[in-house]
Structures are given as structure tokens and as C-alpha cells.
Automatic annotation (TrEMBL):
InterPro entries reported for this sequence: Cro/C1-type_HTH (IPR001387), Lambda_DNA-bd_dom_sf (IPR010982), TransReg_Diox_bact_type (IPR050807)
GO molecular function annotations of the record: DNA binding; DNA-binding transcription factor activity
Record keyword Metal-binding present: no
Annotated protein name in UniProt: XRE family transcriptional regulator
Keywords assigned: DNA-binding
Cellular component, GO, one term: cytosol
SUPFAM superfamilies in alphabetical order: lambda repressor-like DNA-binding domains (SSF47413)
Residue ranges of domain HTH cro/C1-type in the record: 7-61
Superkingdom: Bacteria
Length: 131
């Protein structure tokens, strides 16, 4: 299993540093480094955080890690294209929406959860006012 190598490839494909991934996943940069070097195997919890930070699914990380080293990069590129084919084009989004998406993507997982809860509450409050 080459999970660390998979994480490193995805990180470099996304032009992110170990520090950025660590911040997004709420981990120490040294932990990300050790995982990428194969010195440490991530727990399920850590793997979920890393997958989230890399904008993918843990199942993709597992599937890629079971492939021969020579095939991993091609597999990840193919999977990345399939994941984005169904998404909304950023060119079609309003500028404010793009800004919100960018700012949201830069939040830590804990802050994302807090913000989503606040948005849900605000939405419910607004609906009550409209009735």
C-alpha cells in the first residue's frame, strides 16, 4: 500500500504545500511529511481529513494506493477528471459565489462545520420572516 505516495501526488497535482494540507486537515505538518514518506500510516480519521483537504474521497486514496506505483498518477488524473466533469463550471458562477467558495475552501474543517450550521440557522430565520 502506497497511501503516502498517493497523498503526495494529489497534493502536488493540486499545487499545494504540506503546510496547506496540514492546515486544511487540522494536522501537524510533520505528520503529513511522515505519511508522505511512508514513515507513518494514517488512521481512518486522519485519512478522511486528508481526503477532505485534497478534495477527494478516502475510497479514491485507497483505490490508488493498491495500484502499482507506475499507474498511480494516471489513475488519479483520470479520477480527478471524472469528479470534476459533473461540477458547475466556475466561469458560470457569479463573482460573489466564487468568492464565497474560495473563502470557504480556505477554512479548516471545524470552521467549515461552524459556518454551515450558522448558514442553516440564518436560512431558517429568513424563511420565518418571509412567511
Amino acid at each position: 500500500m502506497n497511501i503516502g505516495y498517493v497523498i503526495k501526488i494529489l497534493r502536488t497535482q493540486r499545487k499545494m504545500t504540506q503546510e496547506q494540507i496540514a492546515l486544511e486537515a487540522d494536522l501537524a505538518t510533520s505528520n503529513v511529511s511522515r505519511i508522505e514518506k511512508g514513515l507513518r500510516q494514517p488512521s481512518q480519521k486522519v485519512l478522511k481529513k486528508l481526503a477532505y483537504a485534497l478534495n477527494t474521497k478516502p475510497s479514491i486514496l485507497y483505490a490508488a494506493s493498491e495500484r502499482p506505483l507506475a499507474e498511480i498518477q494516471d489513475f488519479l488524473e483520470k479520477e480527478g477528471k471524472e469528479e470534476t466533469d459533473g461540477s458547475i463550471s466556475h466561469q458560470l458562477l457569479h463573482h460573489e459565489t466564487q468568492t464565497v467558495i474560495k473563502l470557504f475552501s480556505e477554512l479548516t474543517p471545524n470552521n467549515k462545520s461552524l459556518l454551515l450550521e450558522q448558514l442553516k440557522s440564518l436560512h431558517q430565520w429568513q424563511r420565518k420572516l418571509e412567511q
